[in-house]
Design a protein that fits this description.
The chain contains 6 helices and 12 strands. By secondary structure, the chain is α+β, with helices and mostly antiparallel strands. It has a single domain, classed as PK beta-barrel domain-like (M1 Pyruvate Kinase, Domain 3). The strands form 3 sheets. The chain has a 7-stranded mixed beta barrel with strand order 1-7-6-10-9-8-12. Strands 2-3 form a two-stranded antiparallel sheet. The chain has a two-stranded antiparallel ribbon with strand order 5-11. Strand 8 and strand 9 form a beta hairpin. The termini are far apart.
Length: about 220
């Protein structure tokens, strides 16, 4: 059994203008820590900006939010990796994640892996974060998308299987780990150019149909 993850910060988006994307009225990438507990529920399908955490928002409703991207988690360990590369500190929520955690290698989290938390919360790992122009503009780092892609530490999106709450200082336990080897990092690499990995990722039994279609489009 893997050790529990500790939730270092719970972050929700503060809507702001998005000068980096013409078809998005605003962006919710500027996520800031909030006091908890924060309710987490399953949103509807992608398209109306719905997300899992109460008070959170997304602006690019065609590419973010919805069932498979209800919650985004990023690890303090991966932040440390990028801090060493960039030469400065990165605050919780800087990458637009809802949950800043420590104690679990999110790149090695398996598609379909389930995490339990307070109040009956049950989350399921669905896919990695795919970097976009908003992320590039927000970071304002020369060559950022190439750097983020090369390092393959994308963080994990999760769906909400059962509602509950999250709070700074709380824990998340990995309660179900599929016996396949399709990880978040493998999905990310397949989507970002390593096309030979696509057939392996498509074999993951819990892969969402929309994610499978996305990968096939990258082949």
């Amino acid at each position: 059994m893997l050790p529990p993850m500790r939730i270092l910060s719970v972050n929700v988006g503060k809507p702001r203008d998005n000068p980096w994307k013409d078809d998005a009225e605003f962006t919710g990438i500027d996520k800031r820590p909030v006091a908890g507990p924060v309710a987490v529920t399953a949103p509807g399908p992608k398209g109306d900006g719905s997300v899992g955490l109460a008070g959170d928002r997304v602006g690019d409703v065609q590419n973010h939010g919805g069932t498979e991207q209800a919650v985004y988690a990023y690890s303090r360990e991966d932040y440390g990796h990028f801090e060493a590369l960039l030469g400065y500190d990165l605050r919780a929520g800087m990458f637009g994640e809802n949950l800043t955690v420590e104690g679990h290698d999110l790149s090695e989290a398996r598609i379909g892996e389930r995490w339990s938390g307070d109040g009956g919360l049950l989350l399921e790992v669905t896919c990695p974060r795919i970097p976009c122009n908003t992320f590039r503009g927000w970071m304002a780092v020369r060559g950022w998308l190439k750097t983020f892609t090369r390092e393959a530490r994308p963080g994990a999106y999760l769906s909400v299987v059962e509602p509950g709450t999250v709070e700074q200082g709380g824990e998340l336990d990995v309660v179900e780990r599929p016996d396949h080897d399709v990880t978040v990092a493998m999905f990310f690499k397949a989507a970002m150019g390593e096309r030979d990995l696509i057939p392996r990722v498509l074999e993951a039994p819990s892969l969402a149909p929309a994610d499978a279609a996305f990968l096939r489009s990258r082949g």
